[in-house]
Protein backbone atom coordinates (compact mmCIF):
# COMPACT_ATOMS: atom_id res chain seq x y z
CA UNK A 1 0.00 0.00 0.00
CA UNK A 2 2.78 2.39 0.99
CA UNK A 3 4.74 1.67 -2.18
CA UNK A 4 1.69 2.23 -4.33
CA UNK A 5 1.01 5.54 -2.67
CA UNK A 6 4.57 6.65 -3.33
CA UNK A 7 4.34 5.60 -6.94
CA UNK A 8 1.10 7.47 -7.50
CA UNK A 9 2.56 10.56 -5.83
CA UNK A 10 5.60 10.55 -8.07
CA UNK A 11 3.49 9.94 -11.15
CA UNK A 12 1.30 12.93 -10.40
CA UNK A 13 4.42 15.09 -10.19
CA UNK A 14 5.75 13.92 -13.55
CA UNK A 15 3.53 16.00 -15.83
CA UNK A 16 3.53 14.91 -19.47
CA UNK A 17 5.65 17.35 -21.41
CA UNK A 18 3.88 19.46 -23.99
CA UNK A 19 4.37 18.43 -27.59
CA UNK A 20 4.72 14.70 -26.96
CA UNK A 21 1.95 12.70 -28.59
CA UNK A 22 1.09 9.08 -27.97
CA UNK A 23 0.57 6.86 -30.96
CA UNK A 24 -3.03 5.82 -31.44
CA UNK A 25 -5.12 3.42 -33.49
CA UNK A 26 -5.14 4.89 -37.02
CA UNK A 27 -8.71 3.57 -37.49
CA UNK A 28 -8.34 3.47 -41.27
CA UNK A 29 -6.53 0.98 -43.51
CA UNK A 30 -6.57 -0.23 -47.10
CA UNK A 31 -8.09 1.39 -50.18
CA UNK A 32 -10.61 4.20 -49.60
CA UNK A 33 -14.23 3.09 -49.19
CA UNK A 34 -16.70 4.90 -51.43
CA UNK A 35 -20.35 5.51 -50.57
CA UNK A 36 -22.61 4.09 -53.31
CA UNK A 37 -26.20 4.14 -51.99
CA UNK A 38 -28.05 5.35 -48.93
CA UNK A 39 -31.02 3.30 -47.78
CA UNK A 40 -33.56 5.66 -46.36
CA UNK A 41 -36.53 3.41 -46.72
CA UNK A 42 -36.44 -0.26 -45.90
CA UNK A 43 -33.67 -1.90 -43.93
CA UNK A 44 -31.50 -3.94 -46.25
CA UNK A 45 -30.73 -7.54 -45.67
CA UNK A 46 -32.32 -7.64 -42.75
CA UNK A 47 -34.70 -5.06 -41.82
CA UNK A 48 -35.19 -1.54 -42.28
CA UNK A 49 -37.28 1.28 -41.21
CA UNK A 50 -38.69 3.56 -43.80
CA UNK A 51 -37.61 7.00 -43.34
CA UNK A 52 -38.11 8.99 -46.19
CA UNK A 53 -41.04 9.91 -48.20
CA UNK A 54 -40.54 7.46 -50.94
CA UNK A 55 -43.24 8.69 -53.13
CA UNK A 56 -43.71 5.66 -55.30
CA UNK A 57 -43.44 3.18 -52.46
CA UNK A 58 -45.65 2.14 -49.65
CA UNK A 59 -42.83 0.91 -47.48
CA UNK A 60 -43.56 2.81 -44.39
CA UNK A 61 -41.54 3.45 -41.40
CA UNK A 62 -39.12 0.66 -40.93
CA UNK A 63 -37.02 -1.59 -43.06
CA UNK A 64 -33.81 -3.41 -42.56
CA UNK A 65 -31.58 -3.71 -45.57
CA UNK A 66 -29.48 -6.77 -46.08
CA UNK A 67 -28.33 -8.09 -49.39
CA UNK A 68 -26.62 -6.44 -52.27
CA UNK A 69 -25.69 -7.83 -55.64
CA UNK A 70 -24.44 -5.97 -58.70
CA UNK A 71 -25.04 -7.21 -62.25
CA UNK A 72 -22.56 -7.05 -65.12
CA UNK A 73 -24.30 -3.96 -66.45
CA UNK A 74 -24.25 -2.33 -63.02
CA UNK A 75 -27.85 -3.01 -61.93
CA UNK A 76 -28.05 -3.34 -58.15
CA UNK A 77 -30.47 -5.43 -56.08
CA UNK A 78 -31.05 -5.56 -52.33
CA UNK A 79 -33.32 -7.45 -49.99
CA UNK A 80 -35.06 -6.56 -46.74
CA UNK A 81 -35.63 -9.59 -44.50
CA UNK A 82 -38.92 -9.72 -42.59
CA UNK A 83 -37.24 -12.42 -40.51
CA UNK A 84 -34.97 -9.78 -39.01
CA UNK A 85 -37.19 -6.70 -38.92
CA UNK A 86 -40.93 -6.84 -38.23
CA UNK A 87 -41.31 -3.63 -40.16
CA UNK A 88 -40.21 -5.44 -43.31
CA UNK A 89 -43.13 -7.88 -42.96
CA UNK A 90 -45.88 -7.54 -45.55
CA UNK A 91 -49.26 -7.66 -43.77
CA UNK A 92 -51.32 -7.82 -46.96
CA UNK A 93 -52.10 -4.11 -46.89
CA UNK A 94 -48.85 -2.22 -46.30
CA UNK A 95 -47.25 -3.00 -49.68
CA UNK A 96 -43.82 -3.70 -48.19
CA UNK A 97 -41.31 -5.42 -50.39
CA UNK A 98 -38.63 -7.93 -49.49
CA UNK A 99 -36.60 -7.52 -52.72
CA UNK A 100 -35.87 -4.29 -54.59
CA UNK A 101 -33.82 -2.93 -57.42
CA UNK A 102 -31.84 0.18 -56.48
CA UNK A 103 -32.97 2.72 -59.03
CA UNK A 104 -30.97 5.77 -57.99
CA UNK A 105 -28.58 6.83 -55.26
CA UNK A 106 -31.36 6.50 -52.71
CA UNK A 107 -34.46 5.17 -54.42
CA UNK A 108 -35.71 1.60 -54.89
CA UNK A 109 -38.48 -0.34 -56.63
CA UNK A 110 -39.96 -3.72 -55.61
CA UNK A 111 -38.40 -6.51 -57.69
CA UNK A 112 -39.24 -8.39 -59.88
CA UNK A 113 -42.66 -6.79 -59.30
CA UNK A 114 -44.81 -5.32 -56.56
CA UNK A 115 -47.23 -8.22 -57.06
CA UNK A 116 -44.55 -10.87 -56.47
CA UNK A 117 -43.65 -9.03 -53.25
CA UNK A 118 -47.26 -8.91 -52.07
CA UNK A 119 -48.57 -12.28 -50.83
CA UNK A 120 -52.39 -12.05 -50.62
CA UNK A 121 -53.28 -11.68 -46.94
CA UNK A 122 -49.64 -11.03 -46.07
CA UNK A 123 -46.49 -13.02 -45.33
CA UNK A 124 -47.91 -14.59 -42.15
CA UNK A 125 -50.77 -17.10 -41.92
CA UNK A 126 -52.70 -16.25 -38.75
CA UNK A 127 -55.28 -19.00 -39.33
CA UNK A 128 -52.84 -21.55 -37.84
CA UNK A 129 -51.89 -21.68 -34.17
CA UNK A 130 -49.20 -20.68 -33.67
CA UNK A 131 -49.01 -18.43 -36.72
CA UNK A 132 -46.89 -19.73 -39.62
CA UNK A 133 -45.26 -18.37 -42.76
CA UNK A 134 -47.70 -18.22 -45.68
CA UNK A 135 -47.37 -21.11 -48.15
CA UNK A 136 -47.25 -19.25 -51.48
CA UNK A 137 -44.87 -20.58 -54.10
CA UNK A 138 -45.59 -17.60 -56.37
CA UNK A 139 -45.02 -14.82 -53.86
CA UNK A 140 -42.08 -13.85 -51.68
CA UNK A 141 -42.47 -14.29 -47.92
CA UNK A 142 -39.16 -13.39 -46.28
CA UNK A 143 -36.07 -13.03 -48.43
CA UNK A 144 -32.67 -13.27 -46.79
CA UNK A 145 -30.43 -12.91 -49.83
CA UNK A 146 -30.28 -12.02 -53.51
CA UNK A 147 -27.34 -13.33 -55.53
CA UNK A 148 -26.45 -13.20 -59.24
CA UNK A 149 -25.15 -16.40 -60.79
CA UNK A 150 -22.30 -16.51 -63.34
CA UNK A 151 -24.87 -16.09 -66.16
CA UNK A 152 -26.13 -12.90 -64.47
CA UNK A 153 -29.47 -14.41 -63.49
CA UNK A 154 -30.83 -13.13 -60.16
CA UNK A 155 -31.54 -15.81 -57.54
CA UNK A 156 -33.80 -14.91 -54.65
CA UNK A 157 -33.48 -17.04 -51.49
CA UNK A 158 -36.75 -17.06 -49.53
CA UNK A 159 -36.65 -18.35 -45.93
CA UNK A 160 -40.47 -18.52 -45.87
CA UNK A 161 -40.32 -16.90 -42.41
CA UNK A 162 -41.21 -13.47 -41.05
CA UNK A 163 -41.48 -11.64 -37.73
CA UNK A 164 -44.82 -10.71 -36.20
CA UNK A 165 -45.08 -7.18 -34.77
CA UNK A 166 -44.25 -8.52 -31.28
CA UNK A 167 -40.97 -9.98 -32.57
CA UNK A 168 -41.91 -13.68 -32.93
CA UNK A 169 -40.23 -15.41 -35.87
CA UNK A 170 -42.91 -17.71 -37.28
CA UNK A 171 -41.99 -21.19 -38.63
CA UNK A 172 -42.12 -21.74 -42.39
CA UNK A 173 -44.78 -23.68 -44.30
CA UNK A 174 -44.07 -25.79 -47.38
CA UNK A 175 -44.06 -23.40 -50.36
CA UNK A 176 -42.43 -20.55 -48.44
CA UNK A 177 -38.77 -21.70 -48.41
CA UNK A 178 -37.63 -21.56 -52.02
CA UNK A 179 -35.02 -20.44 -54.51
CA UNK A 180 -36.40 -18.26 -57.31
CA UNK A 181 -34.53 -17.39 -60.50
CA UNK A 182 -35.31 -14.13 -62.34
CA UNK A 183 -34.10 -13.23 -65.82
CA UNK A 184 -32.68 -9.72 -65.87
CA UNK A 185 -33.42 -9.40 -69.58
CA UNK A 186 -37.19 -9.35 -69.02
CA UNK A 187 -37.54 -9.21 -65.20
CA UNK A 188 -39.51 -12.47 -65.26
CA UNK A 189 -39.34 -15.51 -62.97
CA UNK A 190 -37.79 -18.38 -64.96
CA UNK A 191 -37.37 -21.09 -62.30
CA UNK A 192 -38.70 -21.80 -58.80
CA UNK A 193 -37.21 -24.54 -56.61
CA UNK A 194 -39.36 -25.25 -53.54
CA UNK A 195 -37.52 -26.98 -50.69
CA UNK A 196 -39.12 -30.04 -49.10
CA UNK A 197 -39.60 -29.91 -45.30
CA UNK A 198 -36.79 -32.48 -44.90
CA UNK A 199 -34.33 -29.96 -46.44
CA UNK A 200 -35.74 -26.64 -45.21
CA UNK A 201 -37.13 -27.44 -41.76
CA UNK A 202 -39.93 -25.23 -40.42
CA UNK A 203 -37.34 -23.67 -38.11
CA UNK A 204 -34.55 -23.48 -40.69
CA UNK A 205 -33.31 -20.08 -41.83
CA UNK A 206 -31.86 -20.37 -45.34
CA UNK A 207 -29.41 -17.54 -45.29
CA UNK A 208 -27.02 -17.18 -48.20
CA UNK A 209 -26.25 -18.95 -51.48
CA UNK A 210 -23.40 -19.44 -53.96
CA UNK A 211 -23.49 -20.89 -57.50
CA UNK A 212 -21.26 -23.15 -59.56
CA UNK A 213 -22.79 -23.68 -63.01
CA UNK A 214 -20.17 -26.05 -64.43
CA UNK A 215 -22.02 -28.82 -66.24
CA UNK A 216 -19.81 -31.72 -65.06
CA UNK A 217 -20.78 -31.37 -61.40
CA UNK A 218 -24.01 -33.37 -61.62
CA UNK A 219 -25.68 -35.67 -64.14
CA UNK A 220 -28.28 -33.03 -64.95
CA UNK A 221 -25.53 -30.62 -66.05
CA UNK A 222 -27.55 -27.70 -64.67
CA UNK A 223 -25.05 -26.59 -62.06
CA UNK A 224 -25.26 -26.46 -58.29
CA UNK A 225 -26.18 -24.04 -55.51
CA UNK A 226 -24.80 -24.19 -51.95
CA UNK A 227 -26.83 -22.61 -49.15
CA UNK A 228 -26.14 -21.98 -45.45
CA UNK A 229 -28.84 -22.61 -42.84
CA UNK A 230 -28.16 -20.05 -40.09
CA UNK A 231 -31.24 -20.91 -37.98
CA UNK A 232 -31.13 -19.31 -34.52
CA UNK A 233 -33.01 -22.43 -33.34
CA UNK A 234 -29.90 -24.48 -34.13
CA UNK A 235 -31.07 -26.23 -37.34
CA UNK A 236 -27.78 -25.42 -39.03
CA UNK A 237 -26.10 -27.12 -41.95
CA UNK A 238 -25.30 -26.82 -45.65
CA UNK A 239 -28.01 -27.32 -48.29
CA UNK A 240 -26.96 -28.43 -51.78
CA UNK A 241 -29.25 -27.91 -54.80
CA UNK A 242 -29.03 -29.54 -58.24
CA UNK A 243 -30.29 -26.66 -60.38
CA UNK A 244 -30.97 -29.01 -63.30
CA UNK A 245 -33.36 -31.34 -61.46
CA UNK A 246 -34.44 -29.04 -58.62
CA UNK A 247 -33.46 -31.74 -56.10
CA UNK A 248 -31.91 -30.61 -52.81
CA UNK A 249 -30.22 -32.28 -49.82
CA UNK A 250 -28.41 -31.42 -46.62
CA UNK A 251 -24.88 -32.16 -45.44
CA UNK A 252 -22.99 -31.33 -42.24
CA UNK A 253 -26.37 -31.18 -40.55
CA UNK A 254 -26.11 -29.95 -36.95
CA UNK A 255 -22.36 -30.58 -36.49
CA UNK A 256 -20.61 -28.18 -34.13
CA UNK A 257 -18.74 -26.38 -36.92
CA UNK A 258 -22.01 -25.10 -38.44
CA UNK A 259 -23.46 -24.04 -35.08
CA UNK A 260 -22.96 -21.02 -32.84
CA UNK A 261 -20.46 -21.42 -30.01
CA UNK A 262 -21.80 -21.40 -26.47
CA UNK A 263 -20.77 -18.26 -24.61
CA UNK A 264 -19.80 -16.30 -27.74
CA UNK A 265 -19.96 -12.50 -27.31
CA UNK A 266 -19.22 -10.25 -30.31
CA UNK A 267 -18.30 -6.59 -29.77
CA UNK A 268 -19.27 -3.90 -32.25
CA UNK A 269 -17.99 -0.37 -31.72
CA UNK A 270 -16.99 -1.37 -28.22
CA UNK A 271 -20.36 -2.73 -27.16
CA UNK A 272 -21.03 -6.40 -26.31
CA UNK A 273 -23.95 -7.83 -28.30
CA UNK A 274 -26.54 -10.19 -26.72
CA UNK A 275 -29.56 -11.69 -28.48
CA UNK A 276 -33.25 -11.56 -27.50
CA UNK A 277 -34.78 -14.82 -28.76
CA UNK A 278 -38.40 -13.64 -28.54
CA UNK A 279 -40.87 -11.51 -26.58
CA UNK A 280 -40.32 -11.84 -22.78
CA UNK A 281 -37.45 -14.28 -23.28
CA UNK A 282 -34.18 -14.12 -21.33
CA UNK A 283 -31.07 -12.99 -23.17
CA UNK A 284 -28.82 -15.53 -24.87
CA UNK A 285 -25.52 -15.45 -26.73
CA UNK A 286 -25.79 -14.72 -30.46
CA UNK A 287 -27.22 -18.09 -31.63
CA UNK A 288 -26.91 -17.74 -35.42
CA UNK A 289 -25.02 -20.61 -37.05
CA UNK A 290 -23.54 -21.06 -40.55
CA UNK A 291 -24.28 -17.83 -42.40
CA UNK A 292 -21.39 -16.47 -44.51
CA UNK A 293 -20.61 -18.71 -47.49
CA UNK A 294 -18.09 -18.53 -50.35
CA UNK A 295 -16.69 -20.89 -52.96
CA UNK A 296 -12.96 -21.02 -53.63
CA UNK A 297 -12.18 -19.44 -57.01
CA UNK A 298 -11.85 -22.93 -58.57
CA UNK A 299 -15.12 -24.15 -57.01
CA UNK A 300 -13.34 -27.05 -55.26
CA UNK A 301 -13.78 -25.86 -51.68
CA UNK A 302 -16.75 -24.33 -49.86
CA UNK A 303 -16.04 -21.91 -46.99
CA UNK A 304 -18.52 -20.91 -44.29
CA UNK A 305 -18.65 -19.32 -40.87
CA UNK A 306 -21.29 -19.07 -38.12
CA UNK A 307 -22.27 -15.54 -37.03
CA UNK A 308 -22.09 -16.94 -33.50
CA UNK A 309 -18.37 -17.74 -33.70
CA UNK A 310 -15.05 -16.46 -35.01
CA UNK A 311 -13.73 -19.48 -36.92
CA UNK A 312 -13.53 -20.05 -40.65
CA UNK A 313 -14.41 -23.55 -41.85
CA UNK A 314 -14.27 -25.30 -45.21
CA UNK A 315 -14.99 -28.61 -46.91
CA UNK A 316 -14.21 -29.93 -50.42
CA UNK A 317 -17.34 -29.49 -52.58
CA UNK A 318 -16.84 -33.05 -53.85
CA UNK A 319 -17.92 -34.21 -50.36
CA UNK A 320 -21.09 -32.07 -50.51
CA UNK A 321 -22.09 -33.31 -53.96
CA UNK A 322 -21.72 -36.94 -52.88
CA UNK A 323 -25.05 -38.51 -51.83
CA UNK A 324 -23.81 -42.08 -51.32
CA UNK A 325 -24.33 -44.16 -48.16
CA UNK A 326 -21.14 -42.88 -46.50
CA UNK A 327 -21.30 -39.36 -47.88
CA UNK A 328 -22.21 -37.60 -44.62
CA UNK A 329 -19.49 -39.42 -42.67
CA UNK A 330 -16.96 -38.54 -45.36
CA UNK A 331 -18.13 -34.90 -45.44
CA UNK A 332 -17.78 -34.55 -41.66
CA UNK A 333 -14.32 -36.13 -41.78
CA UNK A 334 -13.22 -33.64 -44.46
CA UNK A 335 -14.14 -30.41 -42.62
CA UNK A 336 -11.12 -28.13 -42.25
CA UNK A 337 -10.49 -25.53 -39.56
CA UNK A 338 -9.00 -22.46 -41.30
CA UNK A 339 -8.37 -20.57 -38.06
CA UNK A 340 -10.00 -17.40 -36.73
CA UNK A 341 -11.55 -14.89 -39.10
CA UNK A 342 -13.19 -12.58 -36.54
CA UNK A 343 -16.91 -11.77 -36.36
CA UNK A 344 -18.63 -11.57 -39.72
CA UNK A 345 -21.86 -12.08 -41.59
CA UNK A 346 -21.61 -12.46 -45.42
CA UNK A 347 -18.51 -13.73 -47.30
CA UNK A 348 -17.20 -13.20 -50.84
CA UNK A 349 -14.53 -14.54 -53.22
CA UNK A 350 -12.52 -12.82 -55.98
CA UNK A 351 -10.25 -13.90 -58.83
CA UNK A 352 -7.24 -13.57 -56.46
CA UNK A 353 -8.66 -16.62 -54.71
CA UNK A 354 -9.15 -14.59 -51.50
CA UNK A 355 -12.12 -15.23 -49.18
CA UNK A 356 -13.43 -11.89 -47.86
CA UNK A 357 -15.28 -11.58 -44.56
CA UNK A 358 -16.29 -8.69 -42.34
CA UNK A 359 -14.41 -8.12 -39.13
CA UNK A 360 -16.97 -6.15 -37.17
CA UNK A 361 -14.87 -6.00 -34.04
CA UNK A 362 -12.22 -4.13 -36.06
CA UNK A 363 -14.59 -1.90 -38.09
CA UNK A 364 -13.29 -3.61 -41.17
CA UNK A 365 -13.12 -6.36 -43.75
CA UNK A 366 -10.39 -8.96 -44.04
CA UNK A 367 -9.49 -11.67 -46.50
CA UNK A 368 -8.27 -15.20 -45.96
CA UNK A 369 -5.67 -16.39 -48.45
CA UNK A 370 -5.83 -20.21 -48.80
CA UNK A 371 -2.31 -20.18 -50.32
CA UNK A 372 -0.56 -18.96 -47.15
CA UNK A 373 -3.41 -19.75 -44.74
CA UNK A 374 -3.47 -16.30 -43.15
CA UNK A 375 -5.96 -13.48 -42.80
CA UNK A 376 -4.99 -9.97 -43.95
CA UNK A 377 -6.82 -6.70 -43.24
CA UNK A 378 -8.43 -5.42 -46.45
CA UNK A 379 -10.07 -2.19 -45.22
CA UNK A 380 -10.82 -0.46 -41.94
CA UNK A 381 -12.97 2.63 -41.50
CA UNK A 382 -14.85 4.12 -38.52
CA UNK A 383 -18.05 4.20 -40.65
CA UNK A 384 -18.02 0.40 -40.81
CA UNK A 385 -20.12 -1.39 -38.21
CA UNK A 386 -22.20 -4.48 -39.06
CA UNK A 387 -20.91 -5.54 -42.49
CA UNK A 388 -23.84 -7.57 -43.67
CA UNK A 389 -23.59 -8.63 -47.29
CA UNK A 390 -20.74 -8.46 -49.77
CA UNK A 391 -20.74 -8.71 -53.52
CA UNK A 392 -17.74 -8.71 -55.83
CA UNK A 393 -18.75 -7.02 -59.09
CA UNK A 394 -17.27 -7.20 -62.58
CA UNK A 395 -16.00 -3.61 -62.16
CA UNK A 396 -13.28 -4.82 -59.77
CA UNK A 397 -14.94 -3.53 -56.59
CA UNK A 398 -16.19 -5.26 -53.46
CA UNK A 399 -19.64 -3.84 -52.63
CA UNK A 400 -20.85 -4.21 -49.04
CA UNK A 401 -23.81 -3.11 -46.96
CA UNK A 402 -23.37 -1.63 -43.47
CA UNK A 403 -26.70 -1.92 -41.67
CA UNK A 404 -26.35 -1.60 -37.86
CA UNK A 405 -28.00 -5.01 -37.38
CA UNK A 406 -26.65 -5.23 -33.81
CA UNK A 407 -28.64 -2.09 -32.93
CA UNK A 408 -31.99 -3.54 -34.03
CA UNK A 409 -34.67 -4.64 -31.52
CA UNK A 410 -33.59 -8.31 -31.64
CA UNK A 411 -30.51 -7.41 -29.63
CA UNK A 412 -30.20 -6.16 -26.05
CA UNK A 413 -31.65 -3.81 -24.80
CA UNK A 414 -34.44 -4.58 -27.32
CA UNK A 415 -35.02 -1.07 -28.58
CA UNK A 416 -34.37 0.15 -32.10
CA UNK A 417 -31.16 2.16 -31.90
CA UNK A 418 -30.42 2.19 -35.64
CA UNK A 419 -29.90 5.57 -37.29
CA UNK A 420 -30.91 5.98 -40.91
CA UNK A 421 -29.66 6.01 -43.55
CA UNK A 422 -27.99 2.60 -43.93
CA UNK A 423 -25.16 2.49 -46.40
CA UNK A 424 -23.81 0.65 -49.39
CA UNK A 425 -20.06 1.10 -49.84
CA UNK A 426 -17.51 -0.21 -52.28
CA UNK A 427 -13.73 -0.61 -52.22
CA UNK A 428 -11.40 -1.57 -55.04
CA UNK A 429 -10.09 -5.14 -54.87
CA UNK A 430 -6.33 -5.82 -54.62
CA UNK A 431 -4.30 -6.86 -57.72
CA UNK A 432 -7.16 -6.07 -60.14
CA UNK A 433 -9.31 -8.76 -58.52
CA UNK A 434 -12.77 -9.29 -60.03
CA UNK A 435 -15.85 -11.50 -60.01
CA UNK A 436 -15.35 -15.28 -60.20
CA UNK A 437 -17.53 -16.93 -62.84
CA UNK A 438 -17.82 -20.71 -62.44
CA UNK A 439 -19.61 -21.67 -65.62
C1 LIG B 1 -41.59 -0.25 -36.79
O1 LIG B 1 -41.95 1.07 -37.17
C2 LIG B 1 -42.59 1.79 -36.15
C3 LIG B 1 -43.06 3.10 -36.72
O2 LIG B 1 -41.98 3.78 -37.31
C4 LIG B 1 -41.62 1.98 -35.00
O3 LIG B 1 -42.23 2.70 -33.94
C5 LIG B 1 -41.17 0.62 -34.49
O4 LIG B 1 -40.18 0.75 -33.50
C6 LIG B 1 -40.62 -0.23 -35.62
N1 LIG B 1 -40.42 -1.58 -35.15
C7 LIG B 1 -39.29 -2.23 -35.30
C8 LIG B 1 -39.29 -3.65 -34.83
O5 LIG B 1 -38.31 -1.75 -35.82
C1 LIG C 1 -25.70 9.58 -57.84
O1 LIG C 1 -24.67 10.35 -57.23
C2 LIG C 1 -23.59 10.65 -58.10
C3 LIG C 1 -22.51 11.32 -57.27
O2 LIG C 1 -23.06 12.29 -56.42
C4 LIG C 1 -24.10 11.51 -59.25
O3 LIG C 1 -23.02 11.78 -60.13
C5 LIG C 1 -25.18 10.73 -60.00
O4 LIG C 1 -25.71 11.53 -61.00
C6 LIG C 1 -26.27 10.30 -59.05
N1 LIG C 1 -27.18 9.40 -59.76
C7 LIG C 1 -28.50 9.49 -59.66
C8 LIG C 1 -29.28 8.50 -60.48
O5 LIG C 1 -29.07 10.30 -58.97
C1 LIG D 1 -52.99 -21.11 -43.90
O1 LIG D 1 -53.11 -22.30 -43.13
C2 LIG D 1 -54.22 -23.11 -43.48
C3 LIG D 1 -54.26 -24.23 -42.46
O2 LIG D 1 -53.08 -25.00 -42.52
C4 LIG D 1 -54.04 -23.58 -44.91
O3 LIG D 1 -55.18 -24.37 -45.29
C5 LIG D 1 -53.92 -22.40 -45.83
O4 LIG D 1 -53.63 -22.83 -47.16
C6 LIG D 1 -52.80 -21.51 -45.35
N1 LIG D 1 -52.77 -20.28 -46.19
C7 LIG D 1 -51.63 -19.68 -46.52
C8 LIG D 1 -51.74 -18.50 -47.42
O5 LIG D 1 -50.54 -20.04 -46.10
C1 LIG E 1 -37.39 -14.05 -70.28
O1 LIG E 1 -36.06 -14.28 -70.70
C2 LIG E 1 -35.60 -15.60 -70.49
C3 LIG E 1 -34.15 -15.66 -70.91
O2 LIG E 1 -33.39 -14.78 -70.13
C4 LIG E 1 -36.44 -16.59 -71.26
O3 LIG E 1 -36.02 -17.91 -70.97
C5 LIG E 1 -37.91 -16.44 -70.87
O4 LIG E 1 -38.70 -17.25 -71.69
C6 LIG E 1 -38.35 -14.98 -71.01
N1 LIG E 1 -39.70 -14.87 -70.47
C7 LIG E 1 -40.62 -14.08 -71.00
C8 LIG E 1 -41.94 -14.08 -70.34
O5 LIG E 1 -40.40 -13.41 -71.98
C1 LIG F 1 -0.52 -13.94 -47.32
O1 LIG F 1 -0.95 -13.56 -48.61
C2 LIG F 1 -1.46 -12.23 -48.72
C3 LIG F 1 -1.94 -12.03 -50.14
O2 LIG F 1 -0.91 -12.23 -51.04
C4 LIG F 1 -0.39 -11.23 -48.35
O3 LIG F 1 -0.92 -9.92 -48.43
C5 LIG F 1 0.05 -11.51 -46.92
O4 LIG F 1 1.08 -10.63 -46.59
C6 LIG F 1 0.51 -12.95 -46.78
N1 LIG F 1 0.75 -13.16 -45.37
C7 LIG F 1 1.80 -13.84 -44.91
C8 LIG F 1 1.97 -13.87 -43.43
O5 LIG F 1 2.54 -14.45 -45.66
Describe the 3D structure:
By secondary structure, the protein is mainly β. The protein has one domain: Neuraminidase, CATH 2.120.10.30. The chain is 5% helix and 33% strand. It has three helices and 30 strands. It has helices at 2-13, 317-321, 327-333, and strands spanning 34-39, 45-49, 62-65, 69-70, 76-79, 99-102, 108-110, 124-125, 132-133, 143-148, 154-158, 178-183, 188-194, 206-212, 224-229, 237-242, 248-251, 267-268, 271-272, 290-295, 301-306, 311-316, 336-340, 347-349, 355-359, 364-369, 374-380, 387-392, 397-402, 422-428. It has a four-stranded antiparallel beta sheet with strand order 1-30-29-28, with no helix packed on it. The longest helix is centred in the N-terminal third of the chain and has 12 residues, at 2-13. Mean pLDDT is 91; it is low at 46-62. It binds 2-acetamido-2-deoxy-beta-D-glucopyranose (5 copies). One 2-acetamido-2-deoxy-beta-D-glucopyranose binds next to loops. Belongs to the major royal jelly protein family. It comes from Periconia macrospinosa. It holds the Pfam family MRJP.
Amino acid sequence: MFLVTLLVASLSLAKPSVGQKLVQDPGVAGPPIELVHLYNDQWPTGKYQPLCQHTSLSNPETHLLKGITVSRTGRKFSNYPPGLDANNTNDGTNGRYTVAELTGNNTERPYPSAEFNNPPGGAINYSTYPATGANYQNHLIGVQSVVLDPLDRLWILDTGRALTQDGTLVPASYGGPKLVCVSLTNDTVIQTIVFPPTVAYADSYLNDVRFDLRSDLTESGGGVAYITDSSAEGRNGIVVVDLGTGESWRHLDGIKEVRAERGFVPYVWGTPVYFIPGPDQPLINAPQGSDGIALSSDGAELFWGPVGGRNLWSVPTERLLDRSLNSELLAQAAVRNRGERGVSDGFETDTNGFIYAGNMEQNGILFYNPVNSTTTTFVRDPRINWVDTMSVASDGYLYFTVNQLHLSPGFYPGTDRRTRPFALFRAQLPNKGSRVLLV
